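Hi R.,

Here's the input for the tryptophan complex you asked about:
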Amino acid sequence: MTEPKKKRFLSGMRPSGSLHIGHYVGALENWLRVQHEYECYFLIVDWHVMADHMGEVAMIRKNVIEVALDWLAVGLDPNENSFVVQSQVPEGAELQSLISTLVTVPRLNRNPTLKAEIRQLGKEQGQSDEEADDISRARVSVAFYNYPISQAADILLPKAHLVPTGDDQLPHIELTREIARDFNRLYGEVFPIPEALIGRVPRLVGLDNNGKMSKSLGNTIQLGDPAEVVTRKVMGMYTDPTRLRATDPGHVEGNPVFIYHDAFNPNKEEVDDLKERYVAGKVGDVEVKRKLAAALNTLLEPIRDRRAYYEQHMGEVRDALYQGTQRAKRLAEHTMAEVREAMGLSSYFK
Ligand code: TRP
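And here is the predicted structure with tryptophan in place:
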């Protein structure tokens, strides 16, 4: 196994919409920190979205570009790192198919994240968890069921050492590690065993206090939202429901407005002061929210500006995707030659 000069870092995002502030604190902030330190591959996983949005070609293609725009907007450097479109490196499908021989069906069935997501697929139609499970089991595609293995292939293809993700992705990283170990044991050392790296805020609650922030639930702030939209969304945020007047003592613990202050307001003194006064019934929700909106807008302003620049220079966006994908493709071809050789699949006809 030849070691690259820098450690390789790989992560992926689904092109199912533009990105929001949960992606920022959960992942992008980490990516920005390590982008000069590691050899980074940032993947736009269009195959993953196809697994539960069959046939929605226009939506997926549009969102591949949206995600690339957001990445450039937050300041990821596409020259030093590689932005990669998953489907454009088809070696990933070959690797997925080969490593799926190492994973048993019960092993997939035990994956808690996959279980929860399959249940979610049936939730629109089913009332109880049981009903939802029945509906989803009938609707889930083999591709969706297999996506943890596809994700393992994403990670193993460039032989990544580090995989930064949200905490919900840990079962997939664990699966990848097991696949890598089993592969190396059966066929010889090919893959490094990847490590997971969890973001500062592994999962940000939605504006409405829903445990999951998602554009389709309408409880997010998108990275590209204009300042007035950010302010309006913050002013409408769910807060302490037990507090009717500004003079009532409020609850800070588990209050999304304060969770966001902790996540996005760099002025810790201001946050501590607001918390103290909130608990004592000495500050109104309006002031707390105004200060949060201001902190968010300070963070988002340069991101919005860069996004506006790239929206006017779409050639640079496509070029970033093209160059990065080409680099990933060369690496993938190299890994697959090694994999075929190790598995006794090369030179049949010589
Ligand atoms: N499954 C991840 C998600 O839904 C996305 C993803 C695909 C990914 N391939 C990956 C993340 C590889 C990390 C590494 O968010």
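One thing worth noting: The longest helix spans residues 314-342.

Cheers,
M.
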